[in-house]
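[SOLVED] Need 3D model of a two-part complex

Original post:
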Amino acid sequence: MTLTPIVGQHDAAVNTVQVRVGVNEHLANKTLPAEFYDRYLSRAAKNRQPDPNPASDEIQLELSPQELAVGLQYSLTRGLPDLQEWVYGLQTTSHGREKDEGWSVSIGAGSQDLIYKAVTALVNPGEAVLIEAPVYAGVLPIFQTLDCEMIEVETDAQGIRSDSLRSTLDSWPASKPKPKVLYTVPFGCNPTGMTATLKRRLEVLELSREHGFLILEDDPYYYLYYGTTPRPPSYFDLEKKQPEIGRVVRFDSLSKVLSSGIRLGFVSAPEPIVRAMELHTMMANLQPSSLSQVIALKLLKTWGYAGFRAHTERVSQFYREKRDIFEVALRRHLAGLAEWTTPEAGMFVWFKLLLGTAADGGPAEDSESIIRTKAFEHGVLALPGTVFLPSGRKTAYVRASFSLLPPDEVNEALKRLKVAIIDARDSA
Amino acid sequence: MVKALPAEFYQTFLSDAAKERKPSPIRGLYPLEAKPGVISLLAGKPNSTTFPLDGVKLTARDPSSSSPVEIEIGGAQLQEGLQYGPTAGLPCLLEWVYGLQELEHGRKKGEGWRASIGSGSQDLIYKAINAIVNPGEPVLVESPVYAGVLPMFEALHCEMIEVDTDAYGISADSLRKVLENWPASKPKPKVLYTVPYGCNPTGMTATQERREAVLALAREHNFLILEDDPYYYLYYGIGARAPSYFALEAQQPEVGRVLRFDSLSKILSSGIRIGFLCGPEPIMTVIDMHTAVASLQTPSLTQTITYAILNAWGYVGFKKHTESVSQFYREKRDVFESAMKKHLNGLAEWTSPEAGMFIWFKLVLNSPDGEDDSEALVRTKAYERGVLALPGTIFLPNGRKTAYVRAAFSLLPEPDVNEAVKRLRDTILDARQASA
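Solution:
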């Protein structure tokens, strides 16, 4: 049987692709020594046989002609089958979820792409949606484009406030359709840096059953957890224990662990939702890049899941050290001038500037004007918290990212912020 | 010196959705980082030292010689490819696009247009349509048309006004008639979608005369032209190449009616997903805001790899490469056409394509009701005989019956072509016999 295909292919202009992969020297120098882990490793772990192919030093990966051919040609809307398989395996390893549970995966051009499509698949214009607040600013325009009524759900040092969520839903007007989705970033939330505790997650799951909403679990910092207490399981994991499964739409990203510029993420969600997203992709951008997928897949398969976890653990430690440096500087320069809770995942610190009292006698609650004026004058910039509030109201909070700056610049930045805050208080 | 239409001109062309888009408040602070000595804690970017890719080496064909060219991507270039980047695209690749558009189409910066990189031209076409067309509005669509664009219009519940095409491309006469007979009370269509080179599925290429007539109509009746041109570099006709709409509009009293979509899918790689759009600044701004929300940006890494190859080739190498690609498809066309002449004489009618990878041919089935239907045939008798071609109905905006089919000659080796076309012959003969 001869099939006349719909798309054409010319002999590849690109013949081979090789990728050099390794633990970056800089990162290797910062890696904590092996003995450090002795008190953390379980007996089971200590009893395992050494991996004959440990991920170490630099390795050369070469794409075979077949792999390259796949990377250069059109491929499936949901992503390369082998990469989908890798994701299924990861979700089993990381979250204990198996293939035959009614959920499917799709690869996307970053989790942003998938969140955008999921929201479009689930929410009608004008509908109410539940959004934890403060929230990742990049998700707000998705809801704003749909003219959603964004119902803010409070958060605190333990993550999303399930009690606040409960009262919102318990007092929902009977005549009004309840929100169908809750958007939450449960690990190292951007901007607050907070991680939801197990208790809070279980309560939210319970509420999702009771009040009929789906949970959009946006989890790009899942693998960037460095807390001292055991890692709370994901919603995707926890829902296994519920009477029925299929309320969680889970978004993973490779942006913080592999590369942000490669634009790869994946969704694990009930098949009807993944199918709706697939139809949107067919029209809007056909598929995620085959070449990006082939390169990522080569690396991930070479590492294996153990290698992947080892890498993410190193990345977590890297960010934990950065957090430590930042916090030392915070305590040194901003004690009494700012309040914050230590993050245990991700790359952000969310801190409240103590700016004194406002003209009306209440607390001064506008970090944005301070940033644009006093802070800028003194040569430092942090992100005003207002951009993370669905309502856009004023707040005294700012977000700082500790991912990039070296220690001396961190010190200098916070020293300048101290001066700016004191200046602002004095001028008030 | 070309005169650009002013920004205000586009207010009536922007959709309601476009007008509601807002710039990112975070990006609004980035200019402050430029102040010397400022330490910024703004950007929420991961630290690229944690990215485990240390280098990318690839071998590409050298268009000017038979030996391959080795390309190594490392250092700052690789870091750029691994990290978040600007929404509209990496500066190096954008500069390359500007250079190409000047060389190919004589269009320069400062004429009121700018470029954006997209995840394939599909991505950009989708966003352009969303930036311009409101739900329910009428749009002009040449017919038959690339099937992949129909769902975009359908999702907006557009009234798709078909514009006839023939062996010389889009029929300016047909377009003129549609517009001159347009009911005065009804807002005119704001946009025309056309694939001027090697149109998918017809394979036809619009002549210069037709293009100029369409441009004149665009001025007269105030519509924008979406010039979707993925086969521009796959032209192998004997006659001189007709200039693009983007090039030709420079001869109009003002420029700014053409949105030009280029794709690297048929030249470099379809799987890499890289395309670019050159269009009026106000529309490009809206499209970039859409990208920022929908996917942040076209992947940096694939842009870096693309640029590395294009830069290694230079524009001369790029042209040489596209010429060899064109020759490749011309030879494939020749093989396919000769099989058709051998086996389908009197059984099918077609016009020879001069660009792209498709042949559009009409099956002469002699149905008793006079309505030859290729779809029914393909799904039954053709399938039974072991050959498939794409029923033409999927390329008609209004989905009506047609006797046409589309075949792609891009992939099959010669023996398979002969066999396929022979089976098609047998299928048509079967059908004729059955209806006799």
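Edit: The longest strand of chain A covers residues 14-21.
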